[in-house]
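Below is how a single chain appears once it has passed through the pipeline. First comes the sequence as given, then the structure the pipeline wrote out for it. We keep one example in the README because the format questions we get most often are answered faster by looking than by reading.
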Amino acid sequence: MNVSKRLIDYLPITILCALLGACAQETSESIRFGVASAPRNFDPRFATDAASARINRLIYQRLVDFNERAEPVPALADWQVLSPVRYRFTLKPGRHLFHDGTPLTASDVKATYDFILEPDNASPHRTALALIERIEVADDSTIDFYLQRQDRLFPAYLAIGIAPQAKIKTGARLNEAPVGSGAVRFVSQPVAGHVILQRIDDNQQIEIIHVPDPTVRVLKLVRGEIDLLQNDLPAELISWLEARPEVDVAQSNGTNYSYIGFNLDDPVTGQSQVRQAVAHAIDRDAIIQYVLGNKARVAGAIFPAEHWAGNAKLGGAAYDPDRSIRLLEELGYSRKEPLPLTYKTSSDPLRIRLATVIQEQLGKVGFDVSIKSYDWGTFYGDIKAGRFQMYSLAWVGIHTPDIFRYVFHSGSIPPDGANRGRFRDPATDVLVESAEVETNPLAQAALYRQLQQHLAEQVPYVSLWYEDHVYAARAGIAGYRLAPDGNYDGLKTVYRTDNSRVAKVH
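Resulting structure:
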């Protein structure tokens, strides 16, 4: 398949160059970071989208973080296992202050998690924390979590940002005026999609600027309207930036999992043969080469092989269009009488581009795919509500295997979780529940590998790829480090090497 001939054209490079002409400039003290998706919620008790999670991670501190193998490690607090159902967390020594000057104590931790656990508050994180029976504060630095059942992975669930108890009690709108204790504080949001932050240690101002179109984002970078950007760029724009002397480009392997999801309550996509036919019709290697510029690696499951629970034997469905044709013929469909499918995606140009290539590949085996693209809010709302046959999305920043209960357990159909495809499979439920209560680390990892093998056979998702992370920065910007999960922690360390100021175009 010659995917390269089917690429959707972006703004020609010659026009890009022409647009880099004369422009009036003034200087700005800020470091400006261009993003494809705007944050939607600055309250960690409610935020679920990737952009919000990445920025909230800078504003708020959490009890627990993760190492390179996605194993939980202490962040704000160390922990002890006092019994299989009792965990004691002790805040580390040091000065932990919220950005309003009040101290962060164990009471703030309790208030944050108590709020999430209260059903009337409708926090989307409640399901993942439902095993908590109660929380008790021993002193200002010590807090005990009592569980309804043992779960060896429990500390990994406590990676939600801690909010001030006083703000929680008064019902302050943290979504609009967040108050955390992290490395940066929230200053303002002048307009939607434009967020101003300030680092605590050096008062460096950082602006998050939403620029949804990748070509415009690149243009703003080269013209000096933004200093750096990360991800969500088509391959040819990355190559173009790599050739420019005033821009530094770097990339690294990522762990964010791209997939196609199905509605299993739908009479068409609820059929295993249909889902298998879709899986075997997609030439992932060609898409990675021609559309993603070899800046991704094929995925076989949510977790990559290097994850402690990853299954290195899984590589995803093999590209086998003949098998797809046979599966559809068994259902009475062919290229002359194709099976109609509706494929929903966001209006992001790269996502539309990928959907168009997949549409072509599915059309060659006997599907008639109609692409429906929407702005992010509408698209995401439809997916959460189950208004789809087939869609593509990515799980971002996933570290812990509780994702399997959240996404695939029959008890996690919305609003009780993110089983948006309405996947109901008793064998999956048993494997999820068995893995959760297993106390031997090696046996637990083996159960999760078995679970991922079973899910690959059931095909509630088609595994696509783990996209690499790419960032581009203007010369004179240094110190930004890419993270495997694509977080924005590099903004805590980025700096100017020449003390130059950012050019702002009128």
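The domain at 6-20+27-36+211-253+470-505 is CATH 3.40.190.10 (D-Maltodextrin-Binding Protein; domain 2).

See the next section for the split statistics.
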